[in-house]
Amino acid sequence: MTQALSSLTTIHVGGVPEAIHIAKSRDELIAIAKDVWHRTENFLVLGGGSNLVASDELPGLEVIKVSNLGVEHVGQGIIRVQAGENWSDFVIHAAKSGWPGIESLAGIPGTVGAAPVQNIGAYGQELSLTFHQLEFLDYQTEEVQLMSKADCDFGYRDSIFKRGKQGIITWVEFKFETDLPAEHIALLESRVQEVLVLRASKGMLLNDSDHDTWSCGSFFTNPIVSEHFARTLPSDAPNWPTAEDDGATVKLSAAWLIENAGLAKGFSLPGSKAALSSKHALAITNRGGASAKEVTELARYIQTQVANKFGITLVPEPNLIGF
Ligand SMILES: Cc1cc2nc3c(=O)[nH]c(=O)nc-3n(C[C@H](O)[C@H](O)[C@H](O)COP(=O)(O)OP(=O)(O)OC[C@H]3O[C@@H](n4cnc5c(N)ncnc54)[C@H](O)[C@@H]3O)c2cc1C
Ligand 1 pocket test: which of 108, 127, 198, 317 has the largest number of ligand atoms within 8 Å of its C-beta? Predict the structure, then answer.
């Protein structure tokens, strides 16, 4: 029998799809995708399953599991990484190799191919800073195309792919500064260790025995609102400048909004096996045996409480599949 998605996703929910096709090379990925697309529109491109919530019922869904591996030098400071490579392993490899710019992204789960989808970011770095280009198999045209940074139109936890451009990223190229002095290389490696410790303390580093990490990471993005609106919030509500830094918009803390809407860390609805992480109010977690329905019910409850208290609708960060 086909595996349930609950065993292939980090929040451990999701029913049994129709089929799972595992692609172990770029060419196999392209061939499998075209084959599936000729059969059905009901497909899911799956990497590490760390940023999606799949429904308990997935009738007819065909899953394309991206598992192609390889890291190669293709030019001065340019590294091509196959989409199925583990992101955090690549960060550790980059730090050891003296390639700067992604060390603060250590410990983010998932694959390299999914990293551009939401322009992953943490602790002041984001993928777009070292991104060079990627190869994309377009669902509409079935053509393979190269996409530059401008083509991907990256934003805060956002890109053209997150906004609906359908297809498959087969590999990603990064451009790193080269010839870093030895002492700087050592700094990259210590930064990786520092970030891994910090993440573990917040339940943001995968650990099978810690249910606080059975999540999709942050469940909601930090809302961006007008500076004028932000002034209507309590004075202790944190806000930061946005990437535009135009003074007209600011970014709020979704975790602060949740906690100040009365939902403390560890909160759950009566009888539900989904709960806020005990370490971080922004992560919805599976305490063991939760259903996708329980996860989405809690998410909706949080949205309602925050909207009622502050007039802000929190936007989910993970992709919701089959709802
Ligand atoms: C504990 C924890 C901590 C996290 N911390 C962070 C963080 O600090 N910062 C951050 O940005 N994110 C964070 N995340 C979210 C997540 O790790 C990232 O979004 C990651 O890039 C998802 O990768 P994945 O391979 O698991 O993608 P999946 O969950 O498998 O897929 C996510 C989406 O990308 C699509 N996709 C996957 N692979 C491809 C591909 N090759 N081509 C096209 N589309 C594809 C899928 O169809 C889906 O829509 C965290 C998650 C967890 C569980």
Answer: 108
